[in-house]
Amino acid sequence: MRTRDRIIDAAEQAIREFGIAGATTKRIAQQAGCSEALLYKHFAGKEALFLAVLLERLPALGPALARLRLGTGQGDLAANLTEFALTALEFYRKAAGIASGVLADPSLLSGFRTMLAERQAGPHLPIQALAEILRAEQRGGRLDEAADADAAAAMLMGACFHRANLSSFVDLLDEDEPWAAAIARTLVRK
Amino acid sequence: MRTRDRIIDAAEQAIREFGIAGATTKRIAQQAGCSEALLYKHFAGKEALFLAVLLERLPALGPALARLRLGTGQGDLAANLTEFALTALEFYRKAAGIASGVLADPSLLSGFRTMLAERQAGPHLPIQALAEILRAEQRGGRLDEAADADAAAAMLMGACFHRANLSSFVDLLDEDEPWAAAIARTLVRK
C-alpha cells in the first residue's frame, strides 16, 4: 500500500477512535508507520489530510450524483431520488464526526475554510449538482416547473444532513427507507 | 441577577470565546463570580448547563413555532413559512457551535444523549411540531394533501440546519430571505 493511502487510513482510524481533537499528526504518523515529516510531505496539514479522508474514504456523494445524472429521464424519479437520499444519509452520518470536529476547533476551521476556498470546493457543491439534475428533469417534464430546483435540492440534502445529525443525539424511531421515500414523493409531487 | 442566570450567561460567553472544549466549569464559575460547587448545585453537569444555554439564551424555535401555529389558516402560508425558516436559520447558526462541540466530544455527547432521553427532549421535536402545524394547514386546504407533512417539515428544518452549517465552511453568495422564500414556495406549491 502506498504511504499516502496508509496515512489516510490511519487518519480515518484515529478520528474514529479519538475524535478530531485526539487525531494528532504524531499519532497518525505512528499508526501509518511513517515519520511526521513524511506525513507532511504528503499533506500540507491536518486540514488537507482530513479533507482527503472525507473525499477518498467515505461512501462518496460523487458517484451517487453521477448515477442520478445518468438516470435523468429514466425509471421512476421518486425512486431514483429515494436511492440517492439513502446514500446521502449514509455519507453525512460518516462525515458528521469530521465535520463537527472541524467546526468545534476554531483554528482548524479557519484552515479548512481557506483550503476549501482555494480549491473552490465545499459542502455546498453537491446541492448545486443535485439542482442541475433536477432542472434537467424539469426540462423533461418529470418535475413540476413550479418547484424551485435549487430549493428542492437544498431541502433534500438538508433533510438528509439534519437526520444524520439528529441520530447522534436521539434514537430515531422511523426507518430510513420509508422516510427517504416520503421525502422524494413530497418533492416530486405534481 | 440570579446566580443561575449569571452562570448561564457566563457559559454562553465561554463557549463563544473558547469553544465547548475550552468552556470548563472552572472558567464558567470564575466568570459568573461563584464557586464550582455552587455551579454544580444549579446544574448537574456541563450537559445540563449547555442545554440551558441552548434553550434559554438562543433565539428560540419555540416562540416561532407558536407564532406559526397561531397563524394557521391566516395570511399567506408561504410567507408565514418563510418567516419561520429565517428564525430557524438564525437559531441553527447560533446553536451550531454548541451542537458541534458536543458531537465532537464522545463523553459529553454520551451524557447529552442520556439527558435528552430522560427529559424526552431533543432536536427532532421541532420537526414534529412543524409537521403538526402543516397537517392542520392540510385540513384547512392550504397545503396539498399529496405532500407528506412529516417529510415537508423535515425538509424545511433540514434545509435551514444544513445552510447554517454550510455557512461555517464557505461564503454563501445568495441572500437568506429569497432563499427561504423559494424553500417555502416550493413546499406549498399545488
From TrEMBL, chains A, B:
Upper taxonomic classification of the species? Bacteria, Bacillati, Actinomycetota, Actinomycetes, Streptosporangiales
Enumerate the Gene3D superfamilies for this protein: Homeodomain-like (1.10.10.60), Tetracycline Repressor, domain 2 (1.10.357.10)
Q: Which residues fall in a coiled-coil region?
A: none
Q: What positions does the DNA-binding region cover?
A: 24-43
Which Pfam family is one of those matched by this entry?
TetR_N
| Classification via InterPro entries | Homeodomain-like_sf, HTH-type_TetR-like_transc_reg, HTH_TetR, Tet_transcr_reg_TetR-rel_C_sf
Keyword Metal-binding: yes or no?
A: no
Species name: Nonomuraea helvata
The source's domain of life comes to: Bacteria
Q: Which PANTHER family match?
A: HTH-TYPE TRANSCRIPTIONAL REGULATOR BETI (PTHR30055:SF234), HTH-TYPE TRANSCRIPTIONAL REGULATOR RUTR (PTHR30055)
What are the record keywords, sorted?
DNA-binding, Transcription, Transcription regulation
Q: What protein does this entry describe?
A: TetR/AcrR family transcriptional regulator
Keyword flag DNA-binding: yes
Q: Where is the HTH tetR-type domain?
A: 1-61
